[in-house]
Amino acid sequence: MDMDKVLLVFLGSLLLLVPFLTRFLHRYFEERFLFYKKCIRLYIMARFLKDHSFYIEKEKKTEKGVKRKIAFPKVYVKQKSYELFISLELQGNKFQEQFLNLGSEFETAFFMDFMDKVDGEKFVVYQLAYAAFLNRIHASEVTYDPKKGIKLAKNLWWNFVESPHLLVAGGTGGGKTTFIRAVLIALLKIGVVDACDPKRADFVPLENLEVLKGRIHYDTEKIVSCFENGVEIMHNRMATMRKLAAERGEKELGSFDKYGLEPYFILCDEFNSLVASMESGNYVLRERFMAADKQLILQGRQAGVFLIKLMQKPSAQDLPTIIRDNMMFHISIGKLSDTGYPMMFGDENKNKRFKNYTRLAGKRVYRGYAAVVGELAQEYYSPLVTKDFNFYDVYEAYPRIANPFNPLEKNKEGLPSLPVEAMAQQTSLADFAKENDLPLSTARKIMELLVENGYEVESSAGAALSDQVQNLLVQIMADKELTNDTYKVVVKRIVDRQEELASGAVQ
């Protein structure tokens, strides 16, 4: 009798353990065996098609009554180590219109990242990625490859020559600072970086490092001056490049790296805070900043001048469309609002389902999305930083790279002056219009309006523009973008303000 009780207790305990054992074995096989994963995903695909009524029901009369049978359209699932390809037949079947917009549905059903959709003659193919976490790298592995760019993950590179300027967005505590410090490991090794920190927070410990000494800016006025000085650096670099191209007998001007120039980066943290600090009545300062910012964004690439902006919330007020769309590489770290993702990744990702989670297997991770403007965003994990790793120690070992194109550093560090012939070369009105995506007729109209308002300028296409006139034109374009007033109103407003500044009426 006692043995029977023991046996019953044992069998009862075993039955209670069956669900837990089944769940454990399911997770174990799913993580270890690719074939098991494939079977699970085939089941999910079949369930998806059935539950969404993607099938044709047929009825057949038999002796026993009407027998119903369902037939699925042709669907193929191909699985690779880190990717899943789902091919859905089109060719006039009743579901073809619905089959064209299933990216976000598949993301949810398979808990994967929708990467691409290829429209073929017979099939539409969806590409999804999983196990993106396995592509994460350590901060020490963030390096530069001349052909690929900055390595951000095993499968992700920022090629700043092909995709100039970097925009990083994410909420407080999302990991933006950790990410950008990892990026600096590569940037400080290959070029010059000026960093702007309007909140005097994350870059304060770095200002005494030799590689960044005199290159960290805090006050709003100094940050604006940094951007304006960046424009001058850009012009100096372009002038030198033109001189070298002329000496080589080249008919077309190449990229900066062709002439042996290192890249130059201006990094601005807490960009929302910076713009907000210029909105309290100091319109002139904001206008100066927006003009310099726009000129660097639109013209900096060829000269090797690149901007990196970090912000908590991307908005049209802080980032006009012309600026946002010309910052070609976008990364989100941490959580964004529902309006933040469309602002960062555009209409190309309107059907993408952005997921937000901060922990993986119980551990905190800095996760987000990355994309070149116009492409689908992919899941991204910020470089790992272990407890034994220190950014300061890495930066401290770097030698300082001179910046002979910066007039402020040239005088302090005894660098040689730039050739007079190079400095003397100027941009024509036609060149300026082309570089800024401005119709030449509009550029001429602006020049004529400047003349009407008392400015001595020439409006012909070949007219040489001084740096002062170029900066004035950029201010006019920026003001037009912000206010949407007519050029006649904008030009008069800018000219009046310039006269007030010159007379000391505006402090």
From TrEMBL:
UniProt-listed SUPFAM superfamilies: P-loop containing nucleoside triphosphate hydrolases
Keywords: ATP-binding, Nucleotide-binding
Pfam family, one: FtsK_SpoIIIE
Record GO terms (molecular function): ATP binding; DNA binding
Domain FtsK intervals: 153-342
UniProt key word Transferase: no
Binding site for ATP: 170-177
Gene3D superfamilies in alphabetical order: P-loop containing nucleotide triphosphate hydrolases
Protein name, UniProt field: DNA translocase FtsK
Organism encoding this protein: Streptococcus sanguinis
Gene: ftsK_2
